[in-house]
Design a protein that fits this description.
The protein is mostly helical. The chain has a single domain, classed as MFS general substrate transporter like domains (Growth Hormone, Chain: A), CATH 1.20.1250. The chain is 75% helix and 1% strand. The chain contains 19 helices and two strands. It has a two-stranded antiparallel sheet with strand order 1-2. A hairpin with a 5-residue loop joins strand 1 and strand 2.
Amino acid sequence: MTGTAAISPGQKLNIGFIALIVAVATIGGFMFGYDSGVINGTQKGLEAAFSLGKFGLGINVGAILVGSSIGAFLAGRMADAIGRRNVMMLSAVLFLISALVAGAAGSSLIFICARILGGLGVGAASVISPVYISEVTPAAIRGRLSSVQQVMIITGLTGAFVANYAVARYAGGSTADFWLGFTAWRWMFWLQAVPAAIYLTALFFIPESPRFLVAKGREAEAHTVLTKLFGSNEADRKVAEIRASLAGDHHKPKMSDLIDKTTGKIRPILWTGIGLAVFQQLVGINVVFYYGATLWEAVGFSENDALMINILSGVLSIAACVFTIATVDKIGRKPLLLIGSAGMTVTLGTVAWAFSTAVTGADGAVALPGSNGLIALIAANLYTVFFNMSWGPIMWVMLGEMFPNQIRGSGLAVSGFAQWIANAVVSVSFPTLAKTPGLAVTYVGYATFAAISFFFVQKMVRETRGRELEAMEG
């Protein structure tokens, strides 16, 4: 089975049930986005509340990434042990606890601990939601349904930006007092508890992944789920295919499966997964997500305008993801990645040039002369469009579908861990890099990685459009 698959005329898809599953699973993406983006408008409050310098701010902002890297690594293995849905439930609980504690934190240490807990949830949701969706959807439309995850991530980011903007505007600033006498930035975190509670509740209404159930020898339960998804005839075929796709000795999935038994080397497919995960971060996207407001204030925009720019970026990103949903199962994953790499290289280079022209006035304020501020703004937003029509959703789509059934959990664990480590390196280093050697040189670095990613995709990535999960090789 190496060709593309289509929805056969006799296949009875339960579209309503599939839509419900995707909708619930992608709330994890929303939480991923919200938890990642909420920090964007709270940095002045954190600096004031905890007397933070630039390095301390970087640690507080980057704390979530410590938890995320651990969560991503553990989630892949836990998903093979206790199931995809149970891991998503655990992440929902962590989101809820993190939101409440981060908002109430009385010290930097408590805040960091709360964000690490939230990071565990983010890391788990980031790798499990896409693989769960890929395991319960038909191959012919798997790409577009899996791409909904990125839409929800951006929706979560945008939701955090909108909430931050509204709270700050109503309170008179992120450090001003708001409801019940608590400062506005604390409420920015507490508002996250609402979608976290919704996510936890909704997860009780969706089934476990049938591929996990077959791997655990629970074929009758898997057949029931597949029958509800695709009809009885298709369920019979899928159970047999899933069973056959597992290792010949039918042992439980384990980390050592990532080593090719013939060559004794790491499977090439894992290197591809790690490369996709790492390059998605080395192009600097989370500088926009985590430091957007601070970045635009650094080149002359007001706090209010900077928060509005974040919202604009979020809306454009959602539009780009919608484009991907409409095209990913038609033109494929690899072409979109190549287009994205080329587009990001050009736009990041333009942003770097614009920042190189920044001047400091007599009052110490930094500004971009002439129309360069507008050029930087347009180029930065085009950059987010290119990212979110390509590497944003496609990396998650491919990690969820490219690994054979036997190594999917382990492959996700390692790739997800690599993704969050790269995320941490980029995010924590940015405040220091922005100061020395400066924004222009920093963005040249991101543009360089975007250019390298183009050649990586050309050489290492194989198209997965329309292929059944049981046909994946590596």
